[in-house]
Amino acid sequence: MGEVLPLQRKVERPESPEPLWRELVGAELRRERQAREERLTDVAERAGVSTQYLSEVERGLKDPSSEILSAVAGALDLTVRELSTRVASAGTSATGSYGALCLAA
């Protein structure tokens, strides 16, 4: 008979979770607002949303509708297309080698 070898379990280190689309969008909105040296209240007022809601969007806690996203981007003189392009470009460099981004449903 052969020798019995113990089963060795491969210990996998958990990788950092892939960022959600809403987190990347929120970070880009915040980056743009801060670059323009604007307050949350100013942007929220122009976009027609509450300051608290905009804060939650920027922190990646809320997944805004396309209408809200368009309003907030517009308040920052951006189009949704420009915002999406920035997020896609920043996502590959800022988040590592994820390649594809995880889109929130």
UniProtKB/TrEMBL annotation:
<dbReference type="Pfam" id="PF01381">
    <property type="entry name" value="HTH_3"/>
</dbReference>
<dbReference type="GO" id="GO:0003700">
    <property type="term" value="F:DNA-binding transcription factor activity"/>
</dbReference>
<dbReference type="InterPro" id="IPR010982">
    <property type="entry name" value="Lambda_DNA-bd_dom_sf"/>
</dbReference>
<keyword id="KW-0238">DNA-binding</keyword>
<dbReference type="InterPro" id="IPR050807">
    <property type="entry name" value="TransReg_Diox_bact_type"/>
</dbReference>
<dbReference type="GO" id="GO:0005829">
    <property type="term" value="C:cytosol"/>
</dbReference>
<feature type="domain" description="HTH cro/C1-type">
    <location>
        <begin position="29"/>
        <end position="83"/>
    </location>
</feature>
<protein>
    <submittedName>
        <fullName>Helix-turn-helix transcriptional regulator</fullName>
    </submittedName>
</protein>
<dbReference type="GO" id="GO:0003677">
    <property type="term" value="F:DNA binding"/>
</dbReference>
<dbReference type="InterPro" id="IPR001387">
    <property type="entry name" value="Cro/C1-type_HTH"/>
</dbReference>
